[in-house]
Amino acid sequence: MAAADELAFHEFEEASSLLAETPDAATTSGRGQLAPQGHVAVEVDSGGIYGSEEAEESDKTALLQEEKQQPGFWTFSYYQSFFDVDTSQVLDRIRGSLLPRPGHNFVRHHLRNRPDLYGPFWICATLAFVLAITGNLTLVLAQRRDPSIHYSPQFHKVTVAGVTIYCYVWLVPLALWGFLRWRKGVRERMGPYTFLETVCIYGYSLFVFIPTVVLWLIPVPWLQWLFGVMALVLSAASLVFTLWPVVREDTRLVAAVLLSTVVLLHALLAVGCKFYFFQPLPLEHLAPAGPGHVSACEPLAATHVEA
């Protein structure tokens, strides 16, 4: 006790002398413990802070551990997280959609609970523009083979392709997600994917149709259908293998009907695009009659000349 009292007395004297030199200063003690001899922590109001390093580190830790407030869904920051992916992640998810295999879940192995809208958005946009461009190029190539065909640009195909693709990628997953949520109440063991995960699955499954549409420029009908069937099988298999872990907990009838409907809608999309964008229009629509145009079906009128 005597040593402690002596140490406290020396610290009091040092603090008193320091206060005499700087009247505005205030002494501080660190966490209720006695400071070592010859050292006093002083906080000067006008000049700055001469605090201990432990206090500064604790302040930094408190700032780093402060939780970030979740932005509202009406703000841009809320949707920015859905596009927060790098090139390697997008390429990995594209490879996963192109190489489906049983037991390899696309959501668990590639999305990893981080669905994005960047890949589906640009895949749908690219597919829509490629469909419209190749559909017009098909008529251009037909004109080169047959000079009697008069080509005119069909810009409305861009709108038709865009509306069709984006409605399919958003409305079908919405209906599927709603149905699985309803079945979850009936079958408690079912755990459906989130809506964004379902949209992501459908968006990446359409990537295989981009190179297929380009290959449809080859003017060989049986080869076009072969490429189309191959693309449909890969894309539909990616959907079935991804949805199977969810629907297998349901009854066999419901699972079979649901997966059959998914494949049927996918096939209707592929076949509809093939017939609409790659079937040449009739000649009367390609070359509308204008002034001075004589139809081949109309006989020429005989000219009567009086003597």
Automatic annotation (TrEMBL):
<dbReference type="InterPro" id="IPR006977">
    <property type="entry name" value="Yip1_dom"/>
</dbReference>
<dbReference type="GO" id="GO:0030133">
    <property type="term" value="C:transport vesicle"/>
</dbReference>
<protein>
    <recommendedName>
        <fullName>Protein YIPF</fullName>
    </recommendedName>
</protein>
<dbReference type="Pfam" id="PF04893">
    <property type="entry name" value="Yip1"/>
</dbReference>
<comment type="similarity">
    <text>Belongs to the YIP1 family.</text>
</comment>
<keyword id="KW-1133">Transmembrane helix</keyword>
<feature type="transmembrane region" description="Helical">
    <location>
        <begin position="253"/>
        <end position="277"/>
    </location>
</feature>
<dbReference type="InterPro" id="IPR039765">
    <property type="entry name" value="Yip5/YIPF1/YIPF2"/>
</dbReference>
<dbReference type="GO" id="GO:0005802">
    <property type="term" value="C:trans-Golgi network"/>
</dbReference>
<feature type="transmembrane region" description="Helical">
    <location>
        <begin position="201"/>
        <end position="219"/>
    </location>
</feature>
<dbReference type="GO" id="GO:0031267">
    <property type="term" value="F:small GTPase binding"/>
</dbReference>
<dbReference type="GO" id="GO:0005797">
    <property type="term" value="C:Golgi medial cisterna"/>
</dbReference>
<dbReference type="GO" id="GO:0000138">
    <property type="term" value="C:Golgi trans cisterna"/>
</dbReference>
<dbReference type="GO" id="GO:0016192">
    <property type="term" value="P:vesicle-mediated transport"/>
</dbReference>
<dbReference type="GO" id="GO:0000139">
    <property type="term" value="C:Golgi membrane"/>
</dbReference>
<feature type="domain" description="Yip1">
    <location>
        <begin position="98"/>
        <end position="271"/>
    </location>
</feature>
<keyword id="KW-0472">Membrane</keyword>
<keyword id="KW-0812">Transmembrane</keyword>
<feature type="transmembrane region" description="Helical">
    <location>
        <begin position="225"/>
        <end position="246"/>
    </location>
</feature>
<feature type="transmembrane region" description="Helical">
    <location>
        <begin position="159"/>
        <end position="180"/>
    </location>
</feature>
<feature type="transmembrane region" description="Helical">
    <location>
        <begin position="117"/>
        <end position="139"/>
    </location>
</feature>
